[in-house]
Amino acid sequence: MDCYIKLRIGGHGLDLQEITTELKTIPDAAFKKGDKIISKFESEKTRHTEDSWLVSVKFSKLRPLELEIEEFILSFIPHAKYIKGLSEKFDVTFWIDTYPNTEQFCVNLTKKSIAALYEMGTTFDFGVMYLVAFYDGHYKQLNPNQDMG
Predict the structure, then answer these.
(1) Is residue 105 part of a domain?
(2) What's the burial of 44, exposed, middle or buried (CB within 10 Å: 0-12/13-18/19+)?
(3) 122 burial class (0-12, 13-18, 19+ CB within 10 angstroms)?
(4) What is the tens place of the pLDDT at every residue in 53-101?
(5) Average pLDDT in the 115-127 region?
(6) Distance CA 25, CA 128 (A)
(7) Are the CB atoms for 3 and 60 separated by under 8 Å?
(8) Looking at the domain assignment, is residue 24 inside a domain?
(9) How many domains does the chain have?
(10) Does residue 37 lie within any of the structural domains?
(11) Which of 19, 44, 114, 117 yields a CA-CA distance of 20 to 30 A from 141?
(12) Which residues are CB-neighbours of 115 under 8 A, at least 6 positions away?
């Protein structure tokens, strides 16, 4: 299973350099509204519709996922007051993207993770994409009663 844990800050009027300085973290990506980038899914350039700042880590697979999530979230606790201020004006989201090898998958957030998310005033998103269905070309045909076999 591949899994990425991310912090995304988005909105209009972000000071990207200030965020980098305050969080003491180099982002994986930072864009201003109107910046042109090549889309992951299309070969043509697209324009960003808002400012965004993103940092992520790939799950190491050496420890349980909930501990990886907890470590990433808690790494931002020293900046909780700043992040909470951002979250009052902008979209500040911790998010998990997972690509499991099996259909059954569970994620547990520790009490420390939940408390930290609350303290920072952020949202939390969780996305799962069953890649076997994607690569086999029948992911759009899935329904809850359909067997993948």
Answers:
(1) yes
(2) exposed
(3) buried
(4) 999 988 877 788 889 899 999 999 999 999 999 999 999 999 888 776 6
(5) 92
(6) 26
(7) no
(8) yes
(9) 1
(10) yes
(11) 44
(12) none
